[in-house]
Amino acid sequence: MASTADFKNGLCIEYNNDLYIIVEFQHVKPGKGSAFVRTKLKSLKSGKVIDNTFNSGVKITTARIERRPHQFLYKDDLGYHFMDSTTFEQVGLQEELIEGYAFLKEGQGVDVLYHAETETALSVELPSFVELKITYTEPGIKGDTATNTTKAATLESGATIQVPLFIDQDEVIKVDTRTASYSERVK
């Protein structure tokens, strides 16, 4: 058991029969009335972010989660298959548990969050940035870089994102997996 004084970003709590991670919190002490804590909670089951207010000093049940390194192996009809980097055990997970699954490529390292008491996989976190090769894009027009115009590009993982006009086919780019956007060209 913990109280609202123990809140910190990344803390996993049990609330309304679901597991939530605290994304953001703020202690508020108004001029009148009692103090409270305003939070943004992200559900580990659905991925939705909700706003919630707790009265100051309320007891909260914390959940222990473990972050374990895994390597993406392949995708088939049964789901996505990963290998634990320490025990070499393979685990199959459904697409709903993977945030940014469109940017997975074979051999890529990811972190899988496990509920420590039940040993069930909760979610898969990709690195913030991944390097992917462009398999198809329209050729850029020389000298047409004065504006922030973009074009569609298909990546080796199968995802399609918007890239600047000067990016060509077979180039390797860095993609931000949190926003699904182009970050920079890799030399």
Query: Radius of gyration in whole Å, from Cα?
Result: 21 Å
| Tally of contiguous helical segments | 0
**Structure class:** mainly beta
CATH topology of the largest domain: SH3 type barrels
Order of helices and strands: EEEEEEEEEEEEEEEEE
Record the strand order, biggest sheet. 1-6-2-3-4-5
N-to-C CA distance: 50 Å
The overall number of domains is 3
Indicate the CATH architecture of the largest domain: Roll
**Share of helix among residues?**
under 10%
For the largest beta-sheet, the strand count, sense and barrel status come to: 6 strands, antiparallel
Amount of beta strand? over 45%
Total number of beta strands: 17
Fold and architecture overview:
With 187 residues, the chain is an all-beta fold. The chain folds into three domains: 2-62, SH3 type barrels, CATH 2.30.30.30; 65-125, Nucleic acid-binding proteins (OB fold (Dihydrolipoamide Acetyltransferase, E2P)); 129-185, OB fold (Dihydrolipoamide Acetyltransferase, E2P). It has strands at residues 2-3, 12-15, 18-28, 36-43, 49-55, 59-62, 65-76, 79-84, 90-93, 98-99, 109-115, 120-125, 129-137, 150-155, 160-164, 172-176, 181-185. It has a six-stranded antiparallel beta sheet with strand order 1-6-2-3-4-5, with no helix packed on it. A six-stranded mixed beta sheet has the order 9-8-7-11-12-10, with no helix packed on it. A five-stranded antiparallel beta sheet has the order 15-14-13-16-17, with no helix packed on it. The radius of gyration is 21 Å and the shape is flat.
